[in-house]
Amino acid sequence: MTRRPIIGVGAVMVAVAITLGIALGMPASPPTPSPAPAAASAGPEASVSVAPTVQPVPGHEVFGFVPYWEMNGDIAAHLAKTKLSTLALFSVTNTKTGAIDTRLTGYKRITGDLGSRLIREARARGTKVQLVFSSLGSPRNERLFGSPTIQDVTIAALVALAAEIKVDGIDVDVEQLGVDRIPAYGAFVGRLRDALRAAIPGSSISVATTSGATGAAMAQTAVGAGADRVFLMGYDYHFAGSDVGASAPMDRRDGAVQDLPWSLDLYAGVGVPVERTILGLPLYGMRWRVAGPELGSPRLGDGAIWVPADNPKFLASPPAPPDLDPIEVVEHFAVAPTVSPVPGDSRATAGWQAIYVDSPETLTPKLALADDRGLAGAGFWAIGYERGLAGYGELIARFAAGKLD
To answer: Are 372 and 54 a contacting pair, CB within 8 Å?
Structure first.
């Protein structure tokens, strides 16, 4: 696979330095970048010579999120067959006063009979269980991280709930956080860790952070505050309103620099220890209306999430075999337009449908990337999206056993 010169990472490192500087109250002027490594050959796709670094022996932890909307049907049986080291139950959140919002479905599912069963059975298998606390959206985060009083209430409520439902830790998933609130976020993670360990000896704290500069800054701050694991959300590089492509690309067909290796370089560059990093990968795809059947064909409208477990008949008998995108490393299905069912209307539906989704085959080199970088392991959003489908469970078991080859 062709890789771009690493010089692009240097520019991103400057952006991260600015992000961290703003968050910590430092001057916003960027540092002088180091000279780019000399290229081995000329041209825009030239490789670069990089001094070898010593990587730790990779771990094979498997961190699996189960969202509340997947807590139904045979999910308990499915989890019993899925080799996880950590099960993360998504999620609970806080009210405006800081208390846990008990009105929401996530709280009800996690604390209900099925949630209790998932926790009990996972722990009996030797799987650690974490309660996920989510705070999503700028207004919510500004209110929480702008008020130490609300934070204190939330920390106390989370620790009490974790002890009550008998989990082994808490995962903190904060998204759309202003950079000026990153120090408050780090302090929150540290205070939560201290309070949780006082109540539940041996418990752990993890954080889920996005793949760009702000996510890297948050991860670095959280680790400094004592977070045991960082779940790098290595997905949504392509999304509903973006150009078409893999949610978790190994490289980019559209010429953008952001991909999985880029994010790992970014995290390592700001000091997030690889031995605490979990590479999060998607068990879902994206579907767009596009202009034609070719890989990378332009979209004609916004896309939508495409869940494999919701489409078993399609996967068992697709209208045409999928193409493998060798650049982004993803399966691509092209679905032809259909004739309108309206009598007298011979128009076809507007455009082809393009589905980009990871299969066990395309996830394999992405899991190998976690090994190559010496990470603590890998994880998935979300367990349940692959229910009833062959290959995924076997792949997870092979990775957990260190037997990808």
So the answer is: no
Helix (H, G, I), strand (E, B) or coil at 158: helix
* Degrees to nearest 5, angle at CA 283 with 295 and 401: 115
Instruction: Report residue 177: phi and psi, to 5°.
Output: -100, 130
C-alpha angle with apex 281: 5 to 386, nearest 5 degrees?
145
Q: How far apart are CA 37 and CA 39, in angstroms?
A: 6
Per-residue pLDDT tens over the stretch 228-285: 999 999 999 999 999 999 999 999 999 999 999 999 999 999 999 999 999 999 999 9
Burial of 334 (0-12, 13-18, 19+ CB in 10 A): buried
Q: Assess contact for 116 and 123: CB atoms under 8 A.
A: no
* Token pair recorded at residue 40: 């081995």
What is the spatial distance between Cα 12 and Cα 279, in angstroms, rounded to a whole number?
Answer: 19
Q: Which amino acid is at 126?
A: G
- Helix residue spans in 125-181 (DSSP H): 138-145, 148-165
Torsion over CA: 199, 200, 201, 207 (sign): negative
- Quick one: which of 404, 375, 207 has its CA closest to 279? 375
Question: Half-sphere exposure of residue 198, counting CA atoms within 13 Å on the CB side?
Answer: 11
- What is the residue whose two structure tokens read 């041996």? 202
Q: Which two tokens stand for residue 289?
A: 């209306």
* Closest by CA position to 369, among listed 217, 223, 267, 238: 267
Helix or strand holding residue 204 (H, E) = strand 204-209
Contact 396, 385 (CB under 8 A): no
User: Taken in order 82, 86, 88, 89, is the CA torsion positive or negative?
Assistant: positive
Assigned token pair, 368: 């190998």
The CA R_g of the chain, rounded to the nearest whole Å, is: 22
Question: What does the alpha-carbon distance between residue 339 and residue 350 come to, in Å, rounded to a whole number?
Answer: 10
CA distances from 93 to 135, 163, 177, 194, 338 (A): 6, 16, 15, 20, 43
Query: How crowded is the C-beta side of 70, counted as CA atoms within 13 Å?
Result: 25
Q: pLDDT digit string (tens) for 349-384?
A: 568 999 999 999 999 999 999 999 999 999 999 999
Q: How far apart are the first and last CA of the chain?
A: 18
Residue 378 CA to residue 283 CA, distance in Å, equals 12
